[in-house]
Amino acid sequence: FVDHLYAALAQQGIQTYKDDETLPRGERIGPALLKAIEESRIALVVFSENYADSSWCLDELAHIMECVDTKGQIVEPVFYFVDPSDVRKQKGKYGKAFRKHKRENKHKVGSWRKALEKAGNLSGWVIDENSHEAKCIKEIVGTISSRLSSLFTNFNKDLIGIETRLQDLKSNLKMESGGVRIIGIWGVGGGGKTTLASAAYAEISHRFEAHCLLQNIREESNKHGLEKLQEKFLSLVLKTKDVLVGSEIEGRS
């Protein structure tokens, strides 16, 4: 499940860190993993039935929940064939795992319980035998993409005057009407046209199955020809690196 989820996130262009190593018993999680957790905007935690058996997983979770308090990190939990209340209250297999941890990791049990309780109280996705996993993955990726987009958009809103212009542009796009629309932004050089277009792209691009932002069209086409721009466009939209365009007419088709 995590492999398919990771592939779907990567295909959407979301930079995702997934740790594939296994920590030998008794060792602590390494600096690279701690750094990856701290530098992430969103932590996607997949709770499985045997999640609490791993002291490493619990160490990761404790650090993630610490980053929620210190860095404002967003946590999105996925309860994979496990009841959220088992996670929250350490019942069932989670309770059994903690009875073992009490003997072997006494000094960490308190922080682990606190992290599980906090994460178990968050709303997330519950996946069981009645779930369609492909549909769930698509929904998770859409939500993550939307959350990241809103973080970027909020950053743009610090720019003076951008919000009013952005709302005006979005109303002209008539997103709910269907069909295709082309919007031209006209004005003097340095007036903020590219900034406005970039802010609009950041806010609405996640609503489309495919999207791309091409800048400096005139300069790039003069330097490298339209074929290179067509290759870039098709690579981004098709999410592949192997697009080769032999001619402008071929790229257009």
Automatic annotation (TrEMBL):
Domain TIR residue range list: 1-148
PROSITE patterns: TIR (PS50104)
Single annotated GO MF: ADP binding
Alphabetically ordered keywords of this record: NAD
One of the GO biological process terms: defense response
Pfam families: NB-ARC, TIR
Coiled coil: none
Record carries keyword Metal-binding: no
PANTHER family: LEUCINE-RICH REPEAT-CONTAINING PROTEIN, NB-ARC-RELATED
Listed name of the protein: TIR-NBS-LRR resistance protein
Organism: Helianthus annuus
